[in-house]
Design brief:
The complex is a heterodimer.
Chain A lengths: L2 H25 L6 H24 L7 H19 L1 H28 L2 H5 L1 H13 L11 E6 L2 E8 L4 E4 L2 H25 L1 E4 L2 E4 L1 H20 L3 H19 L2 H21 L1 H11 L10 H13 L22 H34 L3 H25 L17 H23 L1
Antiparallel strand pairs in A: 1-2, 2-3, 4-5
Chain B lengths: L1 H28 L1 H5 L5 H8 L6 E2 L5 E7 L7 E4 L7 H4 L1 E2 L5 E2 H5 L1 H4 L7 H8 L8 E4 L3 H11 L4 E6 L6 E7 L12 H10 L21 H11 L7 E3 L3 E3 L6 E3 L11 E3 H7 L2 H11 L1 H10 L19 H5 L2 H8 L9 H12 L3 E3 L4 E5 L5 E4 L4 E4 L3 H17 L13 E9 L2 E10 L6 E7 L11 H24 L1
Parallel strand pairs in B: 1-6
Antiparallel strand pairs in B: 1-2, 2-3, 4-5, 6-14, 7-8, 7-19, 9-12, 10-11, 13-16, 14-15, 17-18, 18-19
Helix pairs in contact in B: 8-18, 10-12, 10-13, 11-17, 12-15
The chains are: A mainly alpha, B alpha+beta.
Chain lengths: 432, 488
């Protein structure tokens, strides 16, 4: 697929966005208005400018990634616009900001190359940990950067600029920094991790000396996340961590151990935390706990069931009945209004994005870039799976965002960085 | 070292496959479970979330409206300010017990077009108004309210028409129910209670139930007789205590069992004014089923009239009666095989008032859009010609005498020339008391049919003259003085 075809597909998604916004307008009795125009312009500008940046800074990068990302973004944007037009306006700003950040990342990497990420991995780790700890800042001190508790989770920071207050979830950026560190670390220490082994029973484990930093990172990260009561991010980070270990070493013992630790962690947090217990109850029998914990999941199921095969049509369902429909439950909202057809389209597009990501990883010859691409793709794929799986009751509901579809600035910016990294990696691998 | 990455990819794709499977369960195979879950508010809301149009009376009084419900998932609730008096005509639109009346018949007009089909959306592209439309009925609150209060809870109905246009001025059944009670979450129970009520508050006695018309049917027999020249008002009939039914041992007596006046003979007009059964049984046989049936057919007997809902079809079975003179004689006095709705009898009165021309009954005046522009207005149109103008004029005189000196004196409205005909039929639960009539005689503006079944509050002693006529008087008086008032 040529770059020009990519450009054409991006224009097509912008047209789709405008069409979706128009349908929503019609559904509430309106007509083609400025919102439709803005939606079109913003989608075109955001992805069009990243596309131009790719032409300049990473001309050999994958051509199919951006249009696929644009497509899921449009699904989300139309649905957010349908549920909360004000938030859709903010989301448009975030798309432009996220695209700008992606362009900056692409431009910077064009100068220094992804190799520099590997070199500065320890700085990245410090950055990741600082970002993760930021929300633990006091919420009432005079410094204009404060922690914020939202829905019982301490994941937010608030930047008080006097006139504007910006809320941001630094964990969304931290997870990428964490993946960069891991990729660098594992690429450098691979030999040691594989070859320096001790045997504990039948299980071969690396030297504790080699493993220690990893365990510290894992424990520390998990500790912070559990302290912030963010189940989804903990699960996501841990899964990515284990998969990258496995990808780097090829030793399935990491997967077994990871699964074991997940079960232990799961049972442990179920015993320790009320909010985890509530989530489990809501997962297993949402309808019998309808009045309480199961309400959100049940509303999502009602929405999906009512949407049925073809959906109600944009603007014609009642996704606003589902709590957090524009963030955690955006998939249920799309499923209600676009039906099973829409759900499958969204899932297929995400699968396509993940496939492109894995394709980049598999084609990479450089170990670091391969691990980085694998980690980023796993982050993207696992996050998508966890939140959609939570809505569809495949796994317990965890409060994480659906990449590019959920409303939320930090998520958009973080995932744009992720995509920029993948694009750059694919460019470097194609160019070498 | 691509092996592990490949395997990770396979695991993620398997995960996505599980998501597709789960999605197919929730949205396809198991969707019905979740769609129809009683706690799924969507089914409930889809009926009420969008504003419905207004239903207004002929004078603009609001009969049904959508009130916004702030801060609830249910965006609007229907309200029926007219309450029970309008229930049969306006009907209701509920989310638990369905639709009825004009609400059901005009559901498509009243709904907001901000939903449903792609064709609507395409139409909107070309500038079509998607807001709900409104329905103006021909009903007049003065008529409606006076009729409902005059019935005073007795079982029966009142239908009033504008004889010149066919506009339904009043369409009341009693006892009735308050449609506002069917809007709540307990609507199913409320409806069941109404269904179980022996008084039948959900029955539409004005247009969807059939009753024997009793002596009011003599107006049709007389019209047929005059039209074909079998008799004129001065024609003499034997004045007997009973009329022996042809081919039968049974006979017909007059109401009260007496003679119809003092002489050996009695003229048709006297018999009409006094409502003598013996004369009209005789006359019906002389006129014959075919001629009576032809007149009745012109008024809408045996025909499904065009109306917002399926009216009960009034019947005069010509073929059966041709073969059975005894039944014809009995039917001639509005018993046996004749069945009518009050609406049909109001049309009979209207036809006489309108020189024999039967105007098709219309209960909707117009459909208008949110800006008040008429989208679709109903036009008066002729349904049939029941009798010649000359016959209508004669019967009109006879009916005026019924009110001034005959069985219908209690229909008198001071200062107004009222024409009428009473009837007392053997109903299913006691006497069905009837009165049909119109006023003012020289320039009729309202024709009316009043039915009180089972004798109403008067019980077995009830007659059309004693029970139904006073109700007609109240309604005629209210409308004539009210419309004069508004004209002045």
């Amino acid at each position: 697929m040529s770059r020009n075809a990519e450009a054409a597909l991006i224009v097509a998604t912008a047209v789709l966005a405008a069409f979706g916004a128009t349908l929503v307008n019609f559904a509430i009795g309106g007509s083609v208005d400025a919102q439709v125009g803005l939606t079109f312009v913003v989608v075109l500008t955001a992805f069009g400018s990243v596309h131009l940046a790719v032409r300049r800074f990473a001309p050999d990068a994958s051509t199919s990634l951006l249009p696929s990302i644009a497509l899921v973004t449009v699904f989300g944007l139309v649905e957010i616009y349908r549920i909360n037009p004000v938030r859709a306006g903010l989301q448009r700003w975030w798309l432009l900001i996220g695209a700008s950040v992606a362009i900056l990342v692409l431009a910077w990497l064009a100068r220094v190359g992804t190799e520099s990420l590997r070199r500065y991995r320890n700085i990245t780790l410090v950055g990741a940990i600082s970002l993760l700890v930021l929300p633990l800042l006091p919420s009432d001190w005079p410094v204009p950067l404060r922690g914020l508790t939202v829905n019982g989770s301490r994941l937010w920071i608030e930047l008080d600029l006097g006139l504007v207050r910006l809320n941001f979830q630094p964990g969304e950026i931290a997870k990428i920094a964490f993946v960069i560190f891991l990729a660098g670390y594992l690429a450098d220490r691979r030999v040691a991790l594989i070859e320096a082994k001790r045997r504990i029973g039948r299980l071969a484990v690396p030297e504790p000396r080699q493993l220690l930093p990893l365990l510290i990172v894992w424990g520390g990260t998990l500790g912070v996340l559990v302290g912030q009561r963010d189940l989804g991010a903990s699960l996501l980070l841990f899964t990515v961590f284990v998969s990258m270990l496995y990808a780097a070493t090829g030793q399935s013992g990491y997967l077994t151990g990871g699964l074991f630790l997940t079960v232990v962690g799961g049972v442990g947090s179920w015993q320790l935390f009320d909010h985890v217990q509530r989530r489990i109850t809501a997962w297993i029998r949402p309808l019998s706990d309808f009045e309480d914990a199961g309400f959100q999941v049940a509303q999502g199921m009602f929405g999906l069931g009512t949407g049925s095969i073809a959906g109600s049509g944009p603007g014609l369902g009642r996704p606003d009945l589902i709590p957090n429909a524009i963030t955690d439950f955006i998939f249920a909202a799309v499923g209600e209004e676009f039906g099973f057809a829409g759900s499958v389209s969204v899932l297929a597009t995400y699968a396509l994005i993940v496939a492109i990501g894995f394709g980049i990883a598999l084609r990479s010859r450089d170990r670091f870039r391969k691990l980085l691409a694998t980690g980023l793709t796993m982050t993207f794929g696992i996050q998508t799976f966890l939140i959609i799986g939570g809505v569809l009751r495949v796994v317990p509901l965890t409060g994480i965002t659906l990449p590019f579809m959920s409303y939320g600035g930090s998520s958009i910016v973080g995932n744009f960085i992720l995509v920029a990294l993948l694009l750059r990696i694919s460019h470097e691998e194609a160019g070498e | 070292m691509n092996g592990p990455t490949r395997r990770l990819a396979v695991v993620v794709f398997l995960g996505f496959a599980v998501l597709v499977a789960a999605s197919s369960w929730f949205q396809v195979f198991g969707a019905e479970r979740y769609r129809s879950d009683p706690r799924n508010a969507r089914a409930t809301i889809s009926r009420t979330e969008k504003e419905r149009g207004l239903i207004v009376a002929g004078d603009g009084t609001v009969l049904a409206r959508s009130d916004p419900l702030p801060d609830t998932a249910q965006a609007f609730t229907r309200r029926y300010p007219g309450g029970a008096a309008y229930a049969a005509a306006v009907g209701y639109s509920t989310f638990l017990v369905g639709d009825a009346g004009l609400e059901a018949a005009y559901a498509d007009e009243l709904r907001s077009r901000r939903d449903l089909t792609i064709s609507d959306l395409l139409a909107a592209l070309f500038g079509r108004d998607l807001r709900p439309r409104n329905v103006q009925t021909t009903l007049q609150p003065i008529v409606q309210q006076s009729a409902y209060s005059a019935l005073a809870g007795q079982t029966g109905a009142v239908v009033a028409l504008d004889p010149k246009t066919g506009a339904v001025l009043g369409y009341v059944t009693s006892p009735s129910f308050d449609p506002n009670t069917l809007l709540g979450t307990d609507a199913v129970d409320v409806r069941q209670t109404l269904l179980d009520d022996p008084d039948g508050p959900l029955l539409d006695r004005a247009g969807r139930e059939l009753f024997p018309p009793g002596s009011t049917f003599k107006a049709i027999v007389t019209a047929a007789a005059l039209d074909i020249g079998v008799a004129d008002p001065e024609t003499d009939f034997p004045n007997t205590l009973t009329y022996d039914l042809p081919g039968s041992d049974a006979d017909i007596a007059n109401a009260g069992g007496g003679l119809c006046g003092s002489g050996e003979t009695v003229t048709l007009q006297t018999a009409f004014v006094r409502s003598c059964n013996t004369v009209f049984a005789d006359l019906a046989v002389q006129v014959g089923a075919a001629a009576i049936g032809a007149t009745a057919g012109e008024v809408g007997f045996g025909r499904q009239l065009e109306f917002p809902w399926n009216l009960a079809v009034s019947r005069f079975p010509v073929r059966d009666l041709q073969a059975d003179p005894a039944a014809l004689a009995q039917s001639g006095i509005g018993e046996r095989n004749v069945r009518v709705t009050p609406l049909t009898m109001a049309m009979v009165a209207a036809a006489i008032a309108n020189g024999g021309d039967v105007m098709a009954p219309r209960i909707v005046a117009q459909v208008f859009d949110a800006d008040g522009n008429t989208v679709d207005a109903s036009q008066p149109h002729l349904l049939g010609q029941a009798m010649t103008p000359a016959t209508a004029a004669v019967i009109s005189q006879l009916m005026e005498r019924v009110v001034t000196e005959g069985t219908g004196t209690r229909a008198t409205v001071p200062g107004v020339r009222v024409a009428g005909k009473t009837g007392t039929a053997e109903g299913a639960h006691g006497p069905d008391a009837w009165f049909i009539g119109f006023a003012p005689v020289d320039d009729p503006v309202i024709a009316i049919a009043v039915l009180v079944t089972g004798g109403g509050s008067a019980g077995e002693s009830a007659s059309g003259g004693s029970v139904a006529a006073p109700i007609a008087a109240q309604v005629l008086d209210a409308w004539l003085s009210g419309s004069e008032g508004s004209a002045g």
